[in-house]
Amino acid sequence: MPKLMIKNIGTLVSGDISNPLLTGDALIVEGGLIQAIGREKDLDVRGIEQVIDAGKMTLTPGLIDSHCHPVLGDFTPRQKMLDFIESSLHGGVTTAISAGEVHLPGRPKDVAGTKALAILAAKSFANARPSGVKVLGGSIILEPGLQEKDFEELAREGVKVVAEIGLGGVKSPKEAAPMVKWAKKCGMVVMMHTGGTSIPGSATVSADDVIATDPDIVSHINGGPTAVSFAEAEKLIRKTALTLEIAHCGNSKMIVDVMKIVKEMKAYPRIIIGNDAPSGTGVIPLGILRVINFLASLCGVKAEEAIAMATGNTAKVYRLNRGVIEVGREADLVIMDAPLGSVGKDALSAIEAGDIPGIAAVLIDGRMKIGVSRNTPPPNGKIAISQ
After folding, report:
1. Coil, strand or helix at 195
2. CA-based nearest residue to 338, from 292, 294, 381, 307
3. What predicted TM-score, i.e. pTM, was given to this entire model?
4. How far lies 362's CA from each of 60, 197, 346, 352, in Å?
5. Quick one: which of 187, 193, 225, 226 is 20 to 30 A from 206 by CA?
6. Predicted pLDDT of residue 143
7. pLDDT tens-digit profile of 13-25?
């Protein structure tokens, strides 16, 4: 893996919601990790083997989709579509987190089967990244009969997430709460379906259900796709400290309503962004970018803050060593710019104007995975690569 420098960066977006913009115009990557950040003239360039000139464009962390429903590999039986994860890569997504492999045809619902599916998917995605995208797969779908020893086994075998509660046979807080405690004890992150039903077999989940169950994450607080009432959403925002997920496959009006309270409470660090696809809504490769645009153009959120919600905020709750441009972090990066014809002068002002930015390059662990995206409008700028 060559030692890499990215230079001539116009704007450096950190992914850290507390300090979303960095000074500097260059960074160095070695061994897949960020090794240095600053002014090019101040960095030690000895041993650099490859240089990417960013052409004064904006550099951000790779986007993290906090809510995806894969099965195995890059195929979705929900929409009978190949390469949907690769398509998300062209939308700047470098990590996708499974909310449960619920769309598997004939999905087993007994204890042995649900454990086997989670372990298989976790190990499969750990061994094979679709087009390079890091998929945190194998989220355990809660079914009746699971015991503490089962969560201990799942954790030993690499399962790190509890799929959104409500999709499996365990639906009530009385059944789910003990399992949540066992999962957290084993270091797992727990998400919970919120609002109306999404697919046949799922359940309506109220604010009181969420509070009684005590997950880490309120999945799609703006609906998935049917939202809870505004009063229910307000209770979850004001009465808990839970992480709040905004989903693309949700209720757009509820995003506006939710973000008014979040802004009032200065609770931006609690917001993460998920696509919630593949779903009945479909496969939306630019779903994360579209939510970023919605927040920045219609909800009064700065573009760099919205990007942090889709990067560093998510990385923090899932304890990932990525999502923030910082020394020692995995070098998952996106170079973007205002698209051709935009009123925006750069990626951030274009996003705040409601325009999808043009992606010029996506890197994972410091390696180029794509150049100009096939899914976004073309960027104004161009990168240049030299050896």
Report:
1. strand
2. 381
3. 0.96
4. 10, 35, 17, 21
5. 187
6. 98
7. 999 999 999 999 9
